[in-house]
Amino acid sequence: MITLLVIVGIAILIAIGYMNHVVENNKLEKARTKVELNDRLRRCGEITETFPGQMMTPALKLLLTRLELNVCQRLLNQDKTNSAAKARIEELSALVAQGESIPVNNPPAPIQTEAKAKDVRFLLEALHGQITRAAQDGFLPANEAKRWIREVRHLLVLLHIEFFNNLGQHALQQEQPGQARLAFERGVQYLRKQPDPQVYSEQLQYLEKLLARANSMVLTNTAPAEGEVNELTEGLKDVEAEADWKKKVIYD
């Protein structure tokens, strides 16, 4: 009897320990999920608010709003008393209900520096991550997620096109055709390396024309004008005269 009681006692202790372990794990999992959801909510808000207006479409704005709404709903499921999540859900639901008539208020932000280009590229990477995670969670259907990932890649190409074009145009305005040629050449090479360059044939032709113009300006600036006297041409004349004199001496 005593042995049986001891065994039962040990079994009860083991069961209590196991239950405590399960409870603690559940608490940790909920805390981890809450931190993750808040991070995703922050990233969605950052993309929505800071994405350049010239690249933000109503469809993309709607997607970001849907992603943020999904995260807010999951946060509310974690904490039913989260008043901030409740209020935000009402705002986002009203926006989603507008479909692609959703207002897009992002101001244009020209991509004129490498730092700005990197900032926008980071936003695109964050967007790619949000789409992938939403697909893994089952919120976005696989086909829709794949379509949006293709769109993110397309936006990345447009980012490079705008950056190289703006960089080259700025160099031309500063009368630096060499720098302009380098920028346009990088843009042309980038587009030619795309898996389907025909999609960007119009942009490629445009950059090629700018490249040809910059190259012509470089050649014009580096070639001395007819009759122009400078140190280089004078030096060449001296070298030629010296060579002629040496020939005369040798052959005489």
From TrEMBL:
Name of this protein: Uncharacterized protein
Organism name: Pseudomonas frederiksbergensis
